[in-house]
Amino acid sequence: MTAETALALYQTMLEIRLFEETLYRLFSTRDMPGSMHQYNGEEAIAAGVCGHLVKTDYITSTHRGHGHCIAKGADMNAVMAEMFAKSTGCCAGMGGSMHIADFGVGMLGANGIVGGGIPHAVGAAWKCAYKGDGGVAVAFFGDGASNEGSFHESLNLAAVWGLPAVFVCENNLYGFSTHYRRVTPVEDIACRAASYGMEGLVADGMDVEDVYAKAGDAIAKARAGGGPTLLECKAYRYMGHSRFENPTYRPKGELESWKARDPIGAMAARLMGGYGLGASEIDGARARAEAKVAEAVAFAEGSPEPGPKDYERYLHA
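Predicted structure:
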């Protein structure tokens, strides 16, 4: 990895983290609609995977989708405006946090249904194969979704058809309040790939370099016609499951032990170590991220509300 690429990944992770931290404060102090599921701690996954994708590739997301949206290149102003349910949001204020999407950059949508986005990615991958355009579709989903029928059906079909798909399991240990090993009989969800004749990889989801390397292999293979891959990224969500939930079910000290391996802090140290960057470049990245988030908040707050009849433009039946 070049220093330029490493710094770009660090920049993406910073933007996601600051967006989430700012959004949490805003939900605490503003009258904002809906709920939210935050991505703090998992930034290396979105950044490392989407670092290999281009605008015409596709991703599908989860109820925890802000980071995927930002990493795929959605305009942060429009993403923040959607959080405020403003008409300038990327879904015109009609989607909100759990249904955010930006088709213009290939982000096919967050999904409030566990595992709901996985079949959509298979459909997008089928389109890429049919058109022969070299495109790839990536499905992001959590450990809980790997126990859903949509996961198994999707992997089976993608393998049978040899589709250019990458299935990225963000294993953050908990499905809501349940540790994944209470409901999943295997340690590595990636081992389930063998049942469908595809490669299964495990990446350290707290290490953006590891995610970037393994995602790069899977995406390159898919582009070359080598079929799908299941990539499990082991990480940890710092916040509760949603909005203001207090995760009292987690063992004492668990959060602190994972935060000691924070992907952003670890990458900053590597940038100033092996990549030879200086503190000014690290500080510059943070300043750019802070300015970008502040601009997004100002844009959202100054944007108009949707009209009372605007919803009629989006009805299809």
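Summary: The chain has a mean pLDDT of 95.
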